[in-house]
Amino acid sequence: MKLFKTIFLTLLFLTQLVSSNLKNDEKIPAIVTIDWLKTNLNNPNLVLVDLREKDEYLKGHLKNAVNIPGLKSLFDEKFLMPKLDFLKELLSNAGINSNSLVVAYDNGDFIWAARFYWILQTLGHDNVALLKVAYGSLLKENFNITNDEYKPVRKEFIPRVDNKKIQTKLSTLLAIGKKTIIDGRKESHYEGKESLAKRFGHIPTALNYQCTQNYQVSKDGNSMKDLGKLEEIYKDIPKDKEIILYCDGGAEAALNYIVLQELGYKVSVYDGSWLEWGNDTEVPIVNPSK
To answer: What CATH number labels 27-146?
Structure first.
C-alpha cells in the first residue's frame, strides 16, 4: 500500500511538473484579445502595463495594471532608447522578470504600447503582447477598473540585448538599395510637406506605410485590425528581404514592427528615425515636395 501511495504521489508530482513547464514554455500571442485577457487574468505571471500618462492612468485603469508613461519612460533626452541600467530598473520595478507574460495597452494611438513591446523584445523578452483594444468603454465593460495606483512586487529583470532588432543611422545608410525601408509617418511628412526635423522628405528608397493603417478608430476604444485585413495592407512587400522601419522617433515604427513581424516579415527598427536622420546634413534624403 505504501509503495502504491509513493508511486501515485511521484506520478502526480511529475504530471504537475510537466504541466508547469508547458505553461512556462507557452508563448503569448503578439496581439491579445479581450477574451484572451479574461482567460489569463488570474495567471500569476501576467503583468499588465498601462502606457498612458499618469494623470490619465489615475482617472481609471485596469485593476493591477502598472503605469509606465510612454513618452516619459521610453525615450532618453535624444529621443533614443534609454540606457540599459535605467530600463533594467524600470522593468524590475514593474514586476517583470523572465517568467512574465506582459500585456501592454495605451490610449488608442497604440504607438506607446508598441514602443514598450519593441523595447522588451530588443532586451530579449519575447513574451509580450499588445492588447488589441485600447483603453475605453469596451475595457471598462469587461474588466474591473480602479483609480488606485498599483505598486507591484519588484522582480529582477535581466536584459539580454538582441541587436538584430535595432538599427543605427550607419546600418540604415548601408541598407539603402539592399533592404526594404519603411517610413511609418503620415503622408505629408513622407512627402516633405511637414517635418519635425530641420530637413524635409524621407530616406531614399523608403516606402510609406502609415502606422495609423494598422488600427480602426472607435468611440468605444480604438482597436487593432484583424490580421487578414493587415495582410492585405502589406501584401505588396516582399518577404525575401529584411525590413528596416523608421518614423519620427521610433514609436510609430514600433507599431509597424509588431504587425509585420506577426505577418512573417523579418523586421527591425531604426531607433534614431527621422529626428536623427532629418537633422543630419551628411546623409541623403528624398523630398518629393520640391
So the answer is: 3.40.250.10
Residue 218: burial class (beta carbons within 10 Å; 0-12, 13-18, 19+): middle
Residue 79's contacts (CB-CB under 8 Å, 6 or more residues apart) are 249, 250, 272, 275, 276
For 55-75, write each residue's pLDDT tens digit: 999 999 999 999 999 999 999
- Identify the sign of the CA torsion 186, 189, 195, 197: positive
Which residues, 6 or more positions from 112, have their beta carbon under 8 angstroms from its beta carbon? 51, 52, 70, 71, 74, 106, 251
Task: Spell out the domain ranges in the chain.
Answer: 27-146, 163-277
End-to-end Cα distance, the chain: 89
Is 152 within 8 Å of 66 (Cβ atoms)? yes
Answer positive or negative: Cα dihedral of 163, 224, 67, 185. Answer: positive
pLDDT in tens, 82-92: 999 999 999 99
Topology match between the domains 27-146 and 163-277: yes
**Over 70: is that where the pLDDT of 18 sits?**
no
Q: How far apart are CA 249 and CA 171, in angstroms?
A: 17
How far is the C-alpha of 30 from the C-alpha of 28, rounded, in Å?
A: 6
Grid cell at residue 194: 511637414
Contact call for residues 163 and 137 (beta carbons, < 8 A)? no
Instruction: Specify the fold of 163-277.
Output: Oxidized Rhodanese; domain 1 (3.40.250)
The helix (run of H) or strand (run of E) holding residue 246 is: strand 243-246
Rounded to whole angstroms, the Cα distance separating 221 from 274 reads 29
Structure-block grid coordinates of residue 261:
513581424
